[in-house]
Amino acid sequence: MTGATHAAPAAASGAAPSGPLAARAEILAFLVMAGLLAALPLTGLIYPYFLMQALCFAIFACAFNLLIGYVGLLSFGHAMFLGTGGYIAAHTAKVWGFPPELAILAGLAAAGAIGAVVGLLAIRRQGIYFAMTTLALSQMVYFVYLQAPFTHGEDGIQSVPQGRLFGLFDLSQQQTFYYVVLAVFLIAFLLIRRIVNSPFGDILKAIRENEPRAISLGYRTERYKLMAFVLSATLAGLAGSVKALVAQNASLTDVHWTMSGEVVLMCLVGGLGTIFGPVIGAVVIIAMQQYLAGFGQWVLVIQGVIFIACVLAFRRGIVGEIIAFAQWRSAEKR
Amino acid sequence: MQALYGQLVVGLINGSFYALLSLGLAVIFGMLNIINFAHGAFYMMGAFAAYFLLNWAGLGYWWALVLAPLMVGAVGVLVERTMLQWLTGLDHLYGLLLTFGLALVIQGVFQNEFGSSGLPYAIPAELRGAQNLGFMFLPNYRAWVIVFSLVVCLATWFVIERTKLGAYLRAATERPELVRAFGIDVPRMITLTYGFGVALAALAGVLAAPINQVRPLMGADFIIVVFAVVVIGGMGSIMGSIVTGFALGLIEGLTKYFYPEASSTVVFVIMAIVLLVKPNGLFGRTA
Amino acid sequence: MAAADAVPILVAEGLTKTFAGFTAVNNVNLSVRRGTIHALIGPNGAGKTTCFNLLTKFLTPSGGRILYKGEDITGLKPADVARLGLIRSFQISAVFPHLTALENVRVALQRQRGNSFDFWRSKSVLGVYDARAAELLEDVGLAEFIHSRAVELSYGRKRALEIATTLALDPEMMLLDEPMAGMGHEDIERITALIRRVAANRTVLMVEHNLSVVAELSDTITVLTRGQVLAEGDYATVSTNPAVQQAYMGDADG
Amino acid sequence: MAEAANGALLTVAGLEAWYGESHILHGVDFHVRPGEVVTLLGRNGAGKTTTLKSVMGMIGKRSGSIVFDGAETIRLTSDRIARAGIALCPEERGIFASLDVKENLTLPPVVRPGGLSLDQIFELFPNLKERLGSQGTKLSGGEQQMLAIGRILRTGARLLMLDEPTEGLAPVIIQQIGRTIARLKQSGFTILLVEQNFRWASKVADRFYVMEHGRVVDGFASADLEANKQKLQDYLGV
Amino acid sequence: QDNKTVRIGNLSDQSGLYADLGGPGSTLAAQMAIEDSGLLAKGWKIDVIAGDHQNKPDVGTNIARQWYDVDKVDVIVDTPNSGVALAVNQVTREKNKAFLNSGAATSDLSGKACSPNTVHWTYDTWMLAHGTGEAVVKSGGDSWFFLTADYAFGHALERDTTEVVKANKGTVTGAVRHPLNTADFSSFLLQAQSSKAKIIGLANAGGDTTNSIKQASEFGITAGGQKLAALLLFLPDVHALGLQVAQGLTFTETFYWDLNDQTRAFSKRFSERMKNKMMPSMVHAGVYSAVLHYLKAMETFGGNPGDGAKVVAKMKEMPTDDALFGKGTIRADGRKLHPAYLFEVKKPAESKGPWDYYKLVATIPADKAFRPTAEGGCPLVK
Ligand SMILES: Nc1ncnc2c1ncn2[C@@H]1O[C@H](COP(=O)(O)OP(=O)(O)OP(=O)(O)O)[C@@H](O)[C@H]1O
Ligand SMILES: Nc1ncnc2c1ncn2[C@@H]1O[C@H](COP(=O)(O)OP(=O)(O)OP(=O)(O)O)[C@@H](O)[C@H]1O
Ligand SMILES: [Mg+2]
Ligand SMILES: [Mg+2]
């Protein structure tokens, strides 16, 4: 049980504030975020396609954060769920002619199902071993997708039709699609917040803190961890499905292990185990990739440097540092 | 039948690389409790070091075999001193994340400089040619790779499992502060161990250069398979990583013969099965 | 305090555990009567902790059976044993370090809700447990630390918190492994009193090296040596047994 | 209490220590003369363990003065301090899981002649001999304690620091350890003990120091024990 | 029309295994075409930007989309890697811009996937299969085993060559697929070896081809009597292999620097401006010639009409004529027509100097070199 004694990097120790004040600050922050995101495309300053991508990644990062931040499990293979969601949604929409809502549903269901299988294998180990196991299993999934005929290997599934959501909203209209993606994101965000603050979430936290003790209290901890894993996988699948429709393609990039690393980076930059951290991290990283695209492979180098800097100096991430600063300020005042 | 033997020999060659790399990972993991994600990058740097030595200094393969691990090992020492050192006492996952970042940086820099396609590195003159084994042509160079890596693996095993130095290493893995309080300069030991593990990776890189060409991404995907090897073996013992490495190479070879489509996934399938039956891996210690 | 003829609540028959050729627990028969405090003592390495782990299924026996309230629990998983009301503590203190004392206790109280996978519900539904949790904390003398996080508590208070958490499950039987280990005198007295109090209507099986605590608390004592039962009886009987003195107590009372 | 420290083997003065941001020791003063057995008493959390670790150089941030055998050690790293001849048997025992019992026992290098031989150690702790090939952490709690003590007896360190050596041990063994300490003292070792079990400590120690809130607040010789009974009661709640 | 700005995007593999045959060289080729068009002097503003698709279709699509949406790119050129090319083909059509492909091979670009916005300029898999495949089968290589790069290009090349082999009464005993950018071919080569086929057809390109050729000699495959057919080989590949290893290989290309005075003059200018002094590959040549023709068409509008299909239609109307490919035409399905050449790599002794690598074996006239429109199944020409 050595893994259990070192609380996972979540560092949730100091990060998660409690009390009514913090709750109010959180609601305020949520409203500001929602308002900002709703208004941004109207300004015409930002390429809406970029925003949609960023939101998809934000869902993905939040899903990942659910696992590391609240269960203390670092999955290094979350790309497999993103990719699965994408491939299934793309395939069902393109080949089987599913409308977008069904395609997305199929994508997230498939990701959840794979999550259940992978979870069953992976949660037998903790800490580093869990990370490596998920990484290796995701690489296996990668090879399967590389060879499965329906994914078209390196070529990917291209020209995915966007269709009409519920037969009403024409998703090939960028504006319409943007608000749909925004709605999906906000719902997913609220759902995750609810999961964290549910009785189920409390037990997850207890398991993260001291698993043998939770067992001795009569909790079948494996089931809770598995459930959390499946939830996280499903939400990652949601991100992948929506992203496939946004980008109109599904490809190996989304299943490759570098993508798994990228989502870790997003959460690390934003703040592991904080509720807004992953969103901010996702936006920052995607923006960086977007605006530094001209630098070619240097983007990778810059990402690596950020990774190192975060681990060495800013383990709390942007949001974590802000919270810590706020707490320090309020402590000063007292 | 011929093709079967052929595939087995090719598998054994791959196994040599698995064994060398997972051995280095195990040594580093043992001492620093870090999964060295940058291992693939150091492997690649080993190959590049050989390339530079040849093209810039005119030093050939045999020199590279000695100098490249030293050079890359020195880089490892530097990395440990300047970065990893600051992570002692933190959750082990931070080590994984830091070395992941490091891998991105190293690979990115090389990719910018050298593109992502391969640079040729010639087989040394002494090892050119092939033996006709009847069932296949075995290039001399590949035979050399198998034999040489086996020797390196066994020597490493001997030092760690059978000498006092090894006992210090293993003890310091668990409680570095205490071992230090017994009078042993643990930080230096850690630094040198990391350097040694990295040097093993670089050595594998030199061995691979004539086979795989010298490519910035040569270690990137390969290392994930090695991780699977490590999970299967269980990190419990040095011998475990050696045996698992070679064995999985052979199994891959078998798969290539009987069902080539599965050859890239077979290692992972085995990993899944092992996890079901023995969650701690074949040679792993129980918690 | 316990009736001599009370029915056994926990019975181990021929319990055996072998580790790679070494037999740590050898054919132990143990019978714990309902409503008593039963102590397991013995020299180091006698197999006490191993026995505990076997009884709570954290280890799988190599032989023998375990009956709890007449039911065979030999094949159950640890969590399921706990669900039957047989709750253990650990030799090292087991709390949820970054949760507050209240939350620690509430995690146990929440068990009443069954296997609660209701991730869609707000945690405000847990408010109903707060009063009971506060009561339990008050019982163990932690009233003023209700909102402190467990890490910040001193060792003795952590033990008290652990007991409060265990009590929250309202266990029929508690297994305590060296509850006094590493405690100062003051804490020892407090915890002794606490155990006495909470044992009023339950059964306790404990391992303890502190003989004065054993003498004060236990109704029955079983002495283990080398994995086997050496003697059994109340303190007076056991402490005067020459074999026990030789193997365990030595020539003084420690 | 800071009596004359002339000729002391270990002199600690104004020792302060921190764990991260928390300031734990606030100026600890005491000394140990060669050949003495000195015991630190104090409630849980008083800073006894921290004091031993500071002497050993195992605390990141510390200040003040620790003079061992005439040399200042406050700036030395713990490996240098060990080589100067101090050994610690830590509170949490520190047995290595990846080493077997024999390897655990022989792990600390011998820093000077005069330590016990393996046979002498087995004589003290017969359990260990029996389980020599087992994995270190597979021993029972008490056996691990024996291993942890036995381990530093080999090194020949002149100052042995034992942190709660009786914790979790059966009474017989505790008595045995008492006898061992007496023997070690006779062979010229100097011993610094931390102990909760005050009654036992009173049998083996020459002098006591009492710690409270990161300071040494009192000190007296074994002989004056009776006179100080009332004070001790207040300090320790005995 | 008064808008006289044109922006050209060179979307290519800038650092990977195809970087030498397209990549920065293609940017230079486009730049040279702009200069040679003479439009700059007439007040046009034309520039080239470069992007790296990393051989990933999704990356390629993203860049293309952003170029069209945000960066005001009018035409994308080059784009080796058939998978990426097909994706960009799609985006270009959606956004009604223009796509002048030189680097990708798949014949689907002027077949099933043809588009009113796309011209497939330099070569294609059908041409390779017929040029090289037919020559090899006719000289006795009648049983084949393929070593195929596992993506759109490899599949198309394998498919088209199989048809040719079968049509010439040869047999295909099997195929093994390898991932793009593979370094160690040993196990694939062993599979090919045990097939006992006379010819091992390399349906791959760039670094993959050169690696398989080298390792085949290491494993004694060529010594054992089997022959390699490199279905797609570019000048930089031969350069990388060296004549010692490459000698005797036959293959088909549509451009070689040493064909005539005009090609030699262009190539000299080109190589002087290249960082590594490389001679142009046929892909580079194709980019030059395509951009030149595109600008000619653009000029006829007197300005940029901002309508890709319109410009491409104009390109198809006008006959092509340039120094590198001579006179030619663009078919309704987007296929550019010009002659193809069957080359053989010289022996080291035959080579008269640096870059002197090829012997011309046969010239295939423009009307024979490419697939007849009717067989392609292009919906535009129904
Ligand atoms: N996992 C294991 N593998 C091998 N031997 C073990 C294992 N666990 C315990 N043992 C051995 O079994 C014996 C009994 O151990 P146990 O921990 O039950 O003793 P204990 O009675 O609790 O002693 P203590 O009072 O010192 O804690 C010891 O000799 C120990 O070395
Ligand atoms: N690693 C640590 N980080 C922060 N605070 C610590 C740490 N270890 C101990 N402390 C705090 O330092 C203080 C002194 O601890 P120390 O372990 O020295 O006490 P002690 O006198 O040995 O007590 P005990 O009898 O319980 O062993 C305590 O308040 C404790 O909570
Ligand atoms: Mg025990
Ligand atoms: Mg202590």
From TrEMBL, chain A:
Keywords noted in UniProt: Cell membrane, Membrane, Transmembrane, Transmembrane helix
Protein name: Branched-chain amino acid ABC transporter permease
Signal peptide: none
GO cellular component, one term: plasma membrane
Main location: membrane
GO MF, one annotated term: branched-chain amino acid transmembrane transporter activity
Coiled-coil residue windows: none
Family matches, as InterPro entries: ABC_transp_permease (IPR001851), LivM-like (IPR043428)
Transmembrane segments annotated in the record for this chain: 27-47, 54-82, 102-121, 128-145, 176-196, 226-247, 263-288, 295-314
Highest taxon of the lineage: Bacteria
Subcellular location, record wording: Cell membrane
Membrane topology term: Multi-pass membrane protein
UniProtKB/TrEMBL annotation, chain B:
One example of a Gene Ontology biological process annotation: amino acid transport
Protein localization: Cell membrane
Classification of source organism: Bacteria, Pseudomonadati, Pseudomonadota, Alphaproteobacteria, Hyphomicrobiales
Homology family: Belongs to the binding-protein-dependent transport system permease family. LivHM subfamily.
Membrane topology: Multi-pass membrane protein
Residue ranges of the TM segments: 60-79, 91-110, 141-160, 190-211, 223-251, 258-277
One Pfam family matching this protein: BPD_transp_2
Keywords: Amino-acid transport, Cell membrane, Membrane, Transmembrane, Transmembrane helix, Transport
Species of origin: Prosthecodimorpha staleyi
One Gene Ontology CC term in the entry: plasma membrane
Molecular function via GO: transmembrane transporter activity
Name of the protein this chain belongs to: Branched-chain amino acid ABC transporter permease
From TrEMBL, chain C:
GO cellular component, one term: plasma membrane
Record keyword Protein biosynthesis present: no
Key word Transmembrane present: no
UniProt cross-references to CDD domains, sorted A to Z: ABC_Mj1267_LivG_branched
Source organism, top-level taxon: Bacteria
Alphabetic keyword roster: ATP-binding, Nucleotide-binding, Transport
Transmembrane segments: none
Molecular function GO labels: ATP binding; ATP hydrolysis activity
Gene3D superfamilies assigned to the protein according to its UniProt record, in alphabetical order: P-loop containing nucleotide triphosphate hydrolases (3.40.50.300)
PROSITE patterns xref list: ABC_TRANSPORTER_2
InterPro entries in alphabetical order: AAA+_ATPase, ABC_AA/LPS_Transport, ABC_transporter-like_ATP-bd, BCA_ABC_TP_C, P-loop_NTPase
PANTHER family on file: ABC TRANSPORTER ATP-BINDING PROTEIN, CONSERVED COMPONENT OF ABC TRANSPORTER FOR NATURAL AMINO ACIDS-RELATED
Protein name: ABC transporter ATP-binding protein
Automatic annotation (TrEMBL), chain D:
Coiled-coil blocks: none
Keywords: Amino-acid transport, ATP-binding, Nucleotide-binding, Transport
Pfam family, one: ABC_tran
CDD domains listed in its UniProt record: ABC_TM1139_LivF_branched
GO molecular function, one term: branched-chain amino acid transmembrane transporter activity
Residue stretches making up the ABC transporter domain: 10-238
Classification via InterPro entries: AAA+_ATPase, ABC_transporter-like_ATP-bd, ABC_transporter-like_CS, BCAA_Transport_ATP-bd_LivF, P-loop_NTPase
One of the protein's GO biological processes: L-amino acid transport
Family: Belongs to the ABC transporter superfamily.
The protein, known as: ABC transporter ATP-binding protein
Source species of the chain: Prosthecodimorpha staleyi
